[in-house]
Each structure stands twice: as C-alpha cells, then as structure tokens.
C-alpha cells in the first residue's frame, strides 16, 4: 500500500476499535444498570436500559458499514482482513450481550409489580457482577490482544455457571414453598439464564482473542455436552 | 474481472449458497428431531441432535473461511461484497438456531427421567412446527431472493409469540397446581423460550432477505419494547 493509504487504513482501524470500545462500555453499563434496576425494583432505570440498547444496535450497524468500506476501499491482506472480519464477529457478540441486559431490564416491571420481597433476587447481583467483569476483561483483552487476560476470562465462566445452577435450584425450591410467587420466579429464572449467557458470550470473545493472539484454540473448551446454551 | 475470474467467483458463490442450504437443512432437521425427542421422551434421539450440532458449527466455520478467501482473492465490488457479508451474518443466525434445537434436546433427559405425563408438553410440538417452517421458508426466501416469502415469514412471528405467551401461562398455572413438577416445568419454560427464539431468528433472516431484495426495511418491526428476546 502507498503510505497515505496505510495511514488512512490505520485511521479506519482506530475508528473501528474506538467504536467497539464504546459499544463494550455501553454493554457493561447496561448490565450494571439492569441488575441495579432489578435489585431496587426501579422501573424507570429499567426503561432507560431498554432505550439505551438502540444505541448499541446503532453502533453495530456503524461497524458493519465501516467494515464493508474498509474491505472495499483498502482491500486488506490476509491478516488484516481476518482482523477486520473478527471485529465484525465481536460486535455481533457484544450486541447480543446488550440484548441480554435489555431482556433483564424488560423483566423488572413484571417482577416489581409485586410488593413482596423475593428472597432469591438477592443471589443475582453477585452473579451479574462476575458476568459484567468478564465482559469488561474480554474487551480489554481484545483491545490489548492479551492472551493471558483472555484465559482468565475463560476460566471465570465456570463461576457464572455454578452461580446459575445454584440459582436454578434455589428458585425451584422457593417456588415449591411459595406457589404464589411462581410467575415472578419464572421471570427470575430467565434473568439468571440471561446472566449466564452474558458470561458465555464474554467467553466467546475471549476465545476469539486467544485464537487471534496465539493461533491456537484452548483445549477442554468443548462445553457442548455439559451445558445448556439457551 | 477477467472471464475466468468471474467463473471462479460464481463457482465460489455457488459453493457458499450450497453450504448455507446444507446448514439450513440440518438446522431444520435438528428442530424437528428435538421436538420429536421431547414428545417421545427419546433420549437417544436427543443425544443424536446434540452430536449433529457439531456438524452445523463446522459448516459455519467452513463458510467463514470461504468468505475470507473470496474477499481476499476476488476483491468483490460493493454489491457482491455486501452479499458475501450478508451470507456471513446469515450463517451466524443459522448456527444459533442449531444451538436452540440442541438446547431443547439437552433438556429432554432432564424431563424424561420422570414417568409422569406432563400435560403442558402437548402444547409444544405445534409451536415447534411453526418455528421450523419459518426457518425453512426464511432460507428458501434467501436462496430465491424472494421478498414476498420473507414478508410471510416475518408475519408468522406473532403466531410463535402468541404460542409462547400461552405456554408460559399454562406452565405457570400447571406448576401452581402441581408443585412436584416445578423443576421439569422450569425446563419446559426454557424449551418454549428456545422455540420462540428460533422464530425470532428466522424472522431476522427474513428481514435481511427483504432488505437485500428491496433496499428497504419493513415498518412496524421495532419489537424492542414489547418482547423479551432472551
């Protein structure tokens, strides 16, 4: 490439990375606010999370447009091309993480309408925090191409999975003992599942980062037969 | 492009479309078999669905590799490039549809261990059939670039959503009346949610097809505030 073309390409890649970082920051905030809204039964905050998700979707669309432009105008070579395609995949995952946060927020009014304290809610904030940190670290690992940080994210996925299994059992027991709460607890089951899926998607990003940085996949990452990936 | 290059490009696009069609066929079969396994409490068939999902994932990886090759070797122009990128997005969606079918299959043993007849199971096969047909038609619409068929798919999404809401209410009522079935009904809730998500993803494919064929998005498709997209 001519020097000015390289400069333009680098600028575009910087813009791409900036958009991904912004999108990630918004997804993290969405998770945190959704969990806060759930805890405080704050339907106003929940509505904000739902509204903010449109911005995350808009950034994804912007990234897609930019990727097509970069490929069409710069015709990047093998490695650069793979990076650009990887960016496309990562924003797809972050968009889904944003959706999960939005889904949690959407369930808040369905749970908040009831004045009773739902004891099992108390389990969810810590689970949400671990998942949110995984998203944060996975995107930092992407920005810094840091394979070690990616591995740390991947290893934390079992924490979220264990949380989920514990929440599932607790909720089922609570429903048996408090049949009047069954409808709300069903919504909480989906909230827990959404958090578990956020952890899975952070793990997916981390796996992509690890592969891009090392050229290898991690062993023992076939979760296909043990886990429910809804 | 030189004539032999155009021929090679067309061959590659044909291979791409062939892979997507194969992937779609496998995803449809997975949905059908997962629902059959659930109805018949057939854990062997369920295990087959889980195992087969690896093939769907492998085809997705093959498509990704092919897309990178096509872009790198053929440097397709704007419209062709957008088509190739769209193919990448569509296989991502089909892969997720396969995952949902796998997740349904994975829950079969958790439900089948119990000898009791779970009445709400009877609601799910028709729901699964509508969702499966939506996937089938969405991929046909993609293959034929058929905007009308895409619209028909999109319109059917409310049928699946109505099914889901009905199943949710029926299951909650059943749990209240039969507290001993709560754990299995919780799994059925997730099965219903997975089917509902399959319908959503078929709709996503149809929306992409409609946009590619007409250059427009459909009005009234902002489901953002009414639906839970877990």
From TrEMBL, chains A, B:
It comes from the Bacteria. It is found in: Cytoplasm. The keyword Transport applies. SUPFAM superfamilies: PhoU-like. This is Phosphate-specific transport system accessory protein PhoU. Coiled coil: none annotated. InterPro entries: PhoU, PhoU-like_sf, PhoU_dom. The keyword Transport applies. GO terms for cellular component: cytoplasm. It comes from Sphingobium ummariense RL-3. Its main location: cytoplasm. Homodimer. Plays a role in the regulation of phosphate uptake. GO terms for biological process: intracellular phosphate ion homeostasis; negative regulation of phosphate metabolic process; phosphate ion transport. Belongs to the PhoU family. Residues 20-108, 125-209 form the PhoU domain. Keywords: Cytoplasm, Phosphate transport, Transport.
């Amino acid at each position: 490439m001519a020097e000015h073309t390289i400069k333009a390409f680098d600028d575009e890649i910087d813009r791409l990375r900036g958009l991904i970082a912004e999108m990630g920051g918004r997804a993290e905030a969405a998770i945190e606010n959704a969990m806060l809204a759930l805890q405080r039964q704050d339907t106003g905050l929940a509505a904000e999370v739902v509204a903010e998700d449109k911005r995350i979707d808009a950034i994804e669309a912007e990234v897609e447009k930019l990727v097509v432009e970069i490929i069409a105008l710069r015709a990047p070579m093998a490695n650069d091309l793979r990076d650009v395609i990887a960016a496309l995949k990562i924003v797809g995952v972050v968009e889904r993480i944003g959706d999960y946060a939005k889904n949690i927020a959407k369930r808040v009014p369905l749970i908040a309408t009831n004045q009773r304290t739902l004891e099992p809610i108390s389990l969810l904030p810590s689970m949400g925090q671990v998942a949110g940190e995984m998203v944060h670290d996975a995107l930092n690992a992407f920005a810094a191409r840091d394979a070690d940080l990616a591995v740390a994210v991947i290893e934390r996925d079992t924490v979220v999975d264990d949380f989920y299994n514990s929440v599932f059992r607790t909720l089922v027991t609570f429903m048996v003992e408090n049949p009047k709460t069954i409808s709300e607890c069903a919504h909480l089951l989906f909230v827990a599942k959404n958090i578990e899926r956020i952890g899975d998607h952070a793990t997916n990003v981390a796996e992509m980062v690890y592969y891009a940085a090392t050229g290898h996949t991690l062993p023992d990452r076939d979760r296909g037969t043990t886990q429910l990936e809804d």
